[in-house]
Each structure stands twice: as C-alpha cells, then as structure tokens.
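[job 0412] stage=fold_complex status=start
inputs:
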Amino acid sequence: MIDVFYAIFDPDNVFLKYAFIMGCLASISFGIIGTFVTTKRIGYLAGAISHCVFGGIGLALFLQVNIGLTWFDPMLGAVLAAIIAAVTVGLVSLHAKEREDTIIGTLWAVGMASGILLIDMTPGYFNLASYLFGDILLISSKDLLYVACLDAFVLCLSILFFNRFFGVCFDSEFTLLRGINTSFFYLLLLILTALTIVLLVRIVGIVLVIALLTIPSAIASFYAKRLWQMMVYSCLLCLFFIWAGLGVSYAYSLSSGPTIIVLSGSAYLVLLIIHKLIK
Amino acid sequence: MHNNADNKNDHEIILDNISFAYKQRNVLENVDLVINKGEFASIVGPNGGGKTTLIKLILGLIRPDKGSIQVFGKSPKKARQQMGYMPQYAHLDMDFPASVMDVVLLGRLKKSNLWFSKQDRIKALDAIDELGMSTYVNTGFNELSGGQKQRILIARALCNSPDILLLDEPTANVDQQTEKNLFSILKNLNSKMTILLVSHDLGFVSKYVKSVICVNRQVVIHPTTMINGAMIKDIYHGDLKMVRHDHRCSPKGHNND
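[job 0412] stage=fold_complex status=done
writing structure:
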C-alpha cells in the first residue's frame, strides 16, 4: 500500500494524482447532494437519471460519428440527457400519483437500452465498461476543472437555499403552505442531482454512481443529528472511500470503481449491524 | 357556532356547496359549513369519511370539484399565512436529522427571506416554550417521544402567530395522560385563535371542544351539548361498536340514552 503514496508523486503517474484530486473534489458534491437524495428518499429517481445519462452518451457518439456533429461530445450529450431526465422524472413523481414507480422504472430501462442501441448503430469500438463502471485513467485536467465548477455551483445553491431544500426534504406539504414554491425547489434539487451524477460518472460509472451517492450519506445518518452535520460527515466518508478504494485498486491492480463500491458497501453493512445492535 | 352564528364578521371559514371526489369516489358531497371566530371544533367520522380532505380543502392543498371556500373572506391559498397546520404524525420521516429548533423554524419560512433572522428564532423559542418544551430546543427531533413530537409540530404551527390552528389527529399514538395535557394546552390557545382538529375519538374529545363536526360524505355540525346516540348512529350508520364506544367514554352519551 505504501507504493501508492510514492506512485501519486511519480511524474509518470499523473493520472493517479488526478484521480486523487478528483476524489477530493467529487466528495464535496457527492456529500451534499447525497444527503438530500437520502433524506428525501429519491435514490430511485437518481438511479433513473443516471441510466438515462447513458442514452445521452449513446446519442452523442451516434451524432458525432454518423452525422458528423463533431462538437456534440459525449459529455454534452450526458448533461443534456441528465437534465431532461431529471425534469421528466421530477414531473412524473409530482403528478403521476399511481403509476409513478412503473413510469420511472420504464425511463430507467429505456434510457439505458437506447444508449446501447445507438452505440450499436455507430461504427467503431467504444469502451462501454468505462462508462458503466468508471475509469480513472480517463480523468483529464479538464474534468477536474468541470468538477471544481460543479462544486462551486452546488455549494452556492445549497447554502443560499438551505432552508428551502430542508423544508422540501423534511415536510414538503408544510413548506408549500409557508408560501414556498416546493415544486420548483424539488426540480432544482433533481437537476443538481443530475449534474452531480454526470460529472462523477467518470469515477465510478453509471451503474455504480448511485451507490457512492447514497452510501456515505446513509452511514452519516447513523451519527448526524442535524442536516448540515450529515452533509459534512457524508463528504468526509465519501472522500475516505474514494481514496481508500483508489489505493486498494492500485495496489492490487483492480478496477477502481467497483473497489470503491465494495469497500463503502461493506462498511455500510457492518456499521448498519453495529448501529442496530447498539440501539 | 351556536351563540353568535348570525354575525357575518365572525364567519372565518365558509364552505359553500363543496363536493370533492377522489378516484371517482365522492369523498365530500354538497357540503355547507361555517366556522366562527373563537370556535374549538373537533372533526370526527369514520376512516375515509373525508376528515383530512376537509382540512386540506380549507388549507387550499386540494381544490374542490364544485363549490367555493372562503377563509377570512379570501381564497384558502391567500389566507394560508394566517393558518397554522399540524399534519398527521405518520406523514413525516422520523429518521430525519433535525433538531427541535430546526423543525419549529420551518414554521417561520417566508418567501421573502432566505435565512432565518434573530426574530424568527425568538418566535420559535416562544412557541416551543408555550408548549412546555424549552428544555428540548437542541434535542434531535427523532429522539423525542410521540407526545413530545406532537407538541413540537404544534409549536411549528404556532410560531407564525396564526388566527386559525388546524390539527390533523394531534392525539394519534399518544397515551391518555399526554392527550389530556395536549388538550389543556389547546384550551389555552383557544382564547387567542380558532381551533379545528381531526380526531378519531368522539367521546373523549367532546369534553373539551365546543362543537363537533361530523364528516361522512355529508357534514353536520353540532354543539357538544347536543351529542346523543342518534347523532352518532346517523354518522356511523349504526355501527354498534362505535355507539358503545361513546357510551363508555362520554357521560353525555349516557344522559341521552
């Protein structure tokens, strides 16, 4: 494991240094948004959004190669798909009372499937696994800048609208009665979730991103007494899991995304059992 | 209701020929109801009879299919700032990380202010104090007992100094002693505001309240002195258990036997 520390500062291993910086930046957005997702219990909606992102990536690759729209890169496709998915999923959960889970489940699967079909129709080889499970080798300095901007955006909005988001997550009906436009803040929360998912798919991939969004917050909820505390704990836990996962995956030549998820998932299960036993 | 029903200025809530259907089923049908200033009324009736629907209509959370509602002569939406609301207990996530103060401060949310002011905190503290919960200000909301949570939710409804207080099942999941304490608090509050509460228990509540609003698709309002077996039988369609239940709990039920 000591090798990892030397490797980080090895100028030939710049990707590893980027990965660790990425982990640090990512945990800020993950911790804050993850706390909202966990307390509002919209992990399922976040899952649907992340799988729709794959549809956007597929569409971007299709348009780039087949139609020749070179400016339409996968990142742009992913952002567009995520925002459209967030608004759709949000409106469905606000208005379709009875069939909500069926509609969201359908969006989830169709988003994913359409991505695969679009890539099937695009000539050339694409490393699907890197989108699905993440690949830290692909992280560039541009990605770090994107995630830093996302952090600034998420932090600003969360501080500015903290009490409104708190109200929407704890008791939306009561918050509405106090004259707050709860639908707007709910959709804003979903859009922030979508942006977080897109930018952080690079680390753990579409399939695993939901785990990293919800597991640190779920652990934090055992110990936090207030919402902002839960956010701080989530950020720290998220940072710990990403760094530990990166270290272990480097030392044993394993895939980084799955290593991070297995580590955090097992920590959650162990702590959950301890927490239940103490209570 | 029974003393000065003719003075129009005292009519705080007016429901005029309201109908509301949910999933093609009529929950409320042609309901007329007037609530006067200073009223302390308990809304009773069988499950699914429309008690919560009535409260939500008054708050403007749902719109009637037919008829009109006025609160302080305004639409329910515009009158919201003057109404305090305590939702059903089971409606909230009891694992949510929030202190008592965090929860009560929600009652001070305003469209115009992003953050809470010192004034907001003072008002919240006053409301917590009024409910006798001052020692729990920094306690986690999820660490409180059922009765304590109810009190905090009432404090949240109170901290914006409403003129009408609407409570949905404030005595669900609490023991008899806690219920008694809650009602003596409500009795004091009634000197400052109109109170409407949903209850699942007819006999016990009627000792404290001035009127009983019976809801079962239709709505009938009775002063508490008028409660008798026939009225209960009418609203519950002669359910034997319900009639006996009132017998056991309410001396008035016996008197009218």
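[job 0412] summary: Chain B has ten helices and nine strands.
[job 0412] exit 0
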